[in-house]
Specification:
By secondary structure, the chain is α+β, with helices and mostly antiparallel strands. It has five helices and eleven strands.
Amino acid sequence: MSGHPLDNPIWSALSSRLARFGEGGDQARRFTAEISPFGAAADASPEAAAALGALVPHSGDLSLLQVAPPQPPAGVTITMSALGVQMVAQAMTPNEKSLPIEALGDADAAEMLELATLTRPGPFRARTHALGRFVGIRDNGRLIAMAGERLQTDGFIEISAVCTHPDYRGRGYGAALMRTVGARILSDGATPFLHSYADNTTAIALYTSLGFEQRCEVIHAVWART
């Protein structure tokens, strides 16, 4: 693969820091099913596209996220394609108030999946939380908001799974959690990045207020067997 590592962030992650969570070979890889539906080809060649097509599950689908996804091989069809934006931050605006933010881990996995299933911040499965460090906010012991890390490459870490229970929205919890996650990434010497659908102007405005700037446009495509 040539170019910037974030042009094909799934491949960059699966061929470096997150390789242990993937399956496939030197031309295409995907996350294991309990981690994520995302996969990527090493490049746009027909051989790499065919290798990625072979990783599409017989029941279910495979998600791609990159600047220029390859064309699907024979036997695979595109069931969804949407324009997105990729944003990076060189600095984060500070939190304006103190909140009871706590670390989340394996013991919180069921609650994290329940909250993500309710709020749908993006693909989140039973072991997605194992990809990085997550933090959350509780109310009387109940997990009501969370955010964490997903894709990781050398020098870049993605903020993802930012979600708040509908009963608690409008209180700034998502922004506070993003600042916490982003500040830790920056302190580690890496650059935080994230993705949003291009038409989600409300979310993009929030991310801009936190210190993110648009780097490029990306395509979120979904492949399924014909």
